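Pilot study result, target chain (471 residues):
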Amino acid sequence: MENTIETPKQIVNVLDQYIVGQNDAKKAVAVALQNRIRRMKLSAQMQEEISPKNLLMIGPTGVGKTEIARRLAKIVNAPFVKVEATKFTEVGYVGGDVESMVRDLVENAVQIEKKKAYKKVNADAVKEANNRLVKLLVPVDKKKQEADNLKNAQEMLAALQKGQFDFNRPMSESEEITDDIREKRMTVSDKLRAGLLENDMVEIEIDDPAQSMAGNNNMMNQMGIDLNDSLSQLMPKRKITRTVTVSEARDILTKEVAEELVNQADLYHDAIVNAENTGIIFIDEIDKITGSNAQSSGQVSREGVQRDILPIVEGAHVNTKYGSVNTNHILFIGSGAFADSKPSDLIPELQGRFPIRVELSDLTKDDFVRILTEPNNALIKQYIALIGTDNVKVTFTIEAINKIADIAANVNHNTDNIGARRLHTILEKLLEDILYEGPDMQMGEITITEKYVDDKVGKLAQNQDLSRYIL
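Predicted structure:
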């Protein structure tokens, strides 16, 4: 586990940069994460005995439940996946398989390991990519190339007759280079290193993405079977030609070379180990699968989903196309509003697997003011930056920000409470004209005042019928 965070307090400090309030929830997830870091420092025998303390977050929508879990995973670069409990169905029903959440987690872990592995070989990959680029920019004589192709075709036919040909073996790259070609390639190589050809166009062959998609069979993937590997052994890889810039071609070739340099078997093994020991699965809308929330015979299916989720949370082996994954030490974070139900409506076995319960509080007007201004990704900062691309400088007065927060709190109170998401709808309506007219305006400054806010959205908020539809 990569970690530069030393204590739970430091974890909370990082979360504070993006999420306002909810200190109890931040503290709980920080302790859960720190316990995972502590576990990795113990002996292998003791590690096996210590299971993660799964969390259940309870609170209305838009108060930060998902964001807390997502930021938590980013802190340690851990595999993370968010799933909706409502998309799963009981075994025997048409719908999603609960084991797919584990397979999605492993896919995420594979991408993380690929980034790390490719970074290690990046210098060698770029060097080889530049060599291939030089050959593409200064190809050999066409007639000579056709003669080489004919020779390769004859060799391929002979190998086919003997049953010894490998469809995926690269064609022979032997080529006779004249002095003229060699000098041109040396000149182009120097220009490449100097960055003088980055915007030049070059033709490049890449694997046909449509062919790789043909092996993505959801039914087979649910059984942990990857058709891509099987199909690639039976049929040659189809290539397509693209005309791209030298810069883009280098990126494509670097990725191809990196895949050749990296041991994929080791990569998949490391990804599974990473997913098993540091993976985080966030199960949202878990309250929607409680029995008491059912109206009719659907109750059986919803409780069935709970029973299907139970063994995954307890600890089971799930087959994926990269290998078997043990879920014993994956951290599960459940989340739900529990407005029409309560945690005790979950089946007892599942309740026991989420021992840490945290209730997130409703957001107040003061919280909205802080959300608009304090976080690193504060909404006000985002809109100022967006409008600034049109050479228009927007400034919000503190009175205007307070008015926006007040309107958000009132609309949430009088209609459905959607938490901080209400700020998005209000700001979009407030800045609608500026966002529309911005590209046609000359450079200038606009100050958003309390009166402007009141004129644009204040009157809408006072009319409950209009606010329900517009805000």
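One observation from the pilot: The chain is about 55% helix and 10% strand. A full batch analysis is planned for the follow-on phase.
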